[in-house]
Amino acid sequence: MRKKIVAGNWKMNTTPVEGVELFKEVAAKKGEVCSCVNFIVAPPYTHLSEIVKLSRGTGIGVAAQDCATEAKGAYTGEVSAQMIASLGVEYVILGHSERRQYYGETSATLNKKMEQAYANNLAPIYCVGENLEEREAGKHFDVVRKQIEEVVFNLTPDQFKKLIIAYEPVWAIGTGKTASAEQAQEIHAFIRKVLAEKFGDAANETVILYGGSCKPGNAAELFAKADVDGGLIGGAALKAEDFIAIGKGFTK
Prior knowledge:
Elements: E1 4-9, H1 16-29, E2 37-42, H2 48-55, E3 61-64, H3 81-86, E4 91-94, H4 97-103, H5 107-119, E5 123-128, H6 132-136, H7 140-149, H8 157-162, E6 164-167, H9 181-199, E7 207-210, H10 219-223, E8 230-233, H11 240-247
Parallel strand pairs: 1-2, 1-8, 2-3, 3-4, 4-5, 5-6, 6-7
């Protein structure tokens, strides 16, 4: 059985004080959800130290939203994987659509970040997905395949076992368009098929999260699909009640 994961990406939201309160609310409500669900939160860098301390004993994992390509050096404003790991953080989000779109991250960039993450025992949550133009041109399978082949295929089998994939339908985020549960299942099954081409049966154990507009109202329908193992949640993760309600989308 693959893990069921609900991960909350807080993005550039909340002050450290607000983040602590949000985490405490999530931790307090976590018992309302099936123990089979694994929660992860990804606060801004400024919150990580305090959130890690609060997370101890709660069963909630902590992720960073990104890490630097280099181990150390004259890279003003960057935060290394070693710095993140030294705080007790377990996961790091890499290749998020916003990093690709706004900061020009390429597969070359992400291969370096992957290397840093694994060197510091951080489990990557690697994001893939196509934009509206690519979806409407029918190129979504090609785009996602390329994002996997150029980065994930460079991992060793042991590294691959630690990887979590998050599929982001960039075309359905903030566009007014929505991805159906069937569309989510279609691309998740395709991702698993591509992973199997390189890693064989190990792909059956890979957690693939849905990174679209997952809300309390559609979580159960999405999570019922065979290859959807949870969600990478954005806006809804900023309200403890909504985040927990999404976790309840898993009934067993």
